[in-house]
Amino acid sequence: xxxxxxxxxxxxxxxxxxxxxxxxxxxxxxxxxxxxxxxxxxxxxxxxxxxxxxxxxxxxxxxxxxxxxxxxxxxxxxxxxxxxxxxxxxxxxxxxxxxxxxxxxxxxxxxxxxxxxxxxxxxxxxxxxxxxxxxxxxxxxxxxxxxxxxxxxxxxxxxxxxxxxxxxxxxxxxxxxxxxxxxxxxxxxxxxxxxxxxxxxxxxxxxxxxxxxxxxxxxxxxxxxxxxxxxxxxxxxxxxxxxxxxxxxxxxxxxxx
Amino acid sequence: xxxxxxxxxxxxxxxxxxxxxxxxxxxxxxxxxxxxxxxxxxxxxxxxxxxxxxxxxxxxxxxxxxxxxxxxxxxxxxxxxxxxxxxxxxxxxxxxxxxxxxxxxxxxxxxxxxxxxxxxxxxxxxxxxxxxxxxxxxxxxxxxxxxxxxxxxxxxxxxxxxxxxxxxxxxxxxxxxxxxxxxxxxxxxxxxxxxxxxxxxxxx
Lengths: 257, 204
Prior knowledge:
The complex is a heterodimer of chains A (257) and B (204).
Chain A: H1 2-28, H2 61-89, H3 92-105, H4 107-116, H5 120-135, H6 157-163, E1 171-174, E2 178-181, H7 182-194, H8 207-223, H9 228-235, H10 239-256
Antiparallel strand pairs in A: 1-2
Helix pairs in contact in A: 2-8, 3-8, 4-5, 6-7, 6-10
Chain B: H1 2-23, H2 27-43, H3 49-61, H4 66-74, H5 76-80, H6 83-106, E1 112-121, E2 124-133, E3 136-147, E4 150-158, E5 161-162, H7 163-196
Antiparallel strand pairs in B: 1-2, 2-3, 3-4, 4-5
């Protein structure tokens, strides 16, 4: 019985120790006056995670910067005013449905690329969503799986190339389209062959009509946006560098997924 | 009888051993606590203007570690900087982040935040959240470090883009080209600009 009691006491002690340790440490360093970092010895300038930090290769920076400038003007003086006028005369539910419609049109590209990367579940999810939204969702106007939470991740040919080891190459700012890189430009061309809107396979649309649809998609998207670009431009020391890095990081993350 | 007793004691001990793991607040709880407090302030129409801004600043400064964020942002340049330059950078960087984001935070109104998975590895953690704005879900992950029993944010990943890594890239390039003097001038200018025209956000 006494043995059991000693055992119990020991266990209690052992159990309490991990709790006591942080508070001991905190007490020991209480004399250090500076901020919350005082107790940390880790070298924060490099974390293991930084090993894979991407170096952005931008040999065309002067050209890219001028394209960035051009796109900025296009946005400020053309796209945004149009989007603002359009928003004023179009109710939000309509604009959301238009957004859904265009998003649904992009699903086939995503299905093809999911398949090319051997992502079976994503392919099925994407395909099911496309079928459901195209039929019950009245041609994609309503996004019926919106409430379910699990959303397939969109895939494009740039990601497919990345998946099989193609590096992003150099950064490139395209007129109108914006951020890209040498790999993703190839992806854009390839995807335009499978996209219902632009594909020459069922191509009944003239290039001008395709461009018109793309412009409408962009304007509609902007009408639903809360000035993301304006905020980026306002807040950053060099918006070009911010956008460049954000694009490359996001593409890398999507390839890795 | 005796073996049952022993079993019970051992079981009790095991339960107690397991407890301390969950004893501290989880990173998700702490992130949620701060965000809930911020949202509460935003929804309270009785507090406006400067007092509201000060409350928000206090809440945010209590959950973010600006020193670590500064070290992460400058990376290798941090070690080359003098103690004075380091201190100056931390001060400017905190002010700049605050001037940038307070306007954006204040623009939030009917957004809802969902708290998803958390991953803890020793004294580091990542908490996944999504913020629903209109009919779009924006994924926002917080990276945290445990310091004296409290979790502090040292990076925010918005739509798969790490803010600190992004800053590291731009700030590194500016330091390389213009040195600290150039960087500080730019930062000061930006802070002045942002403060002079506080974020006119929202649907504009």
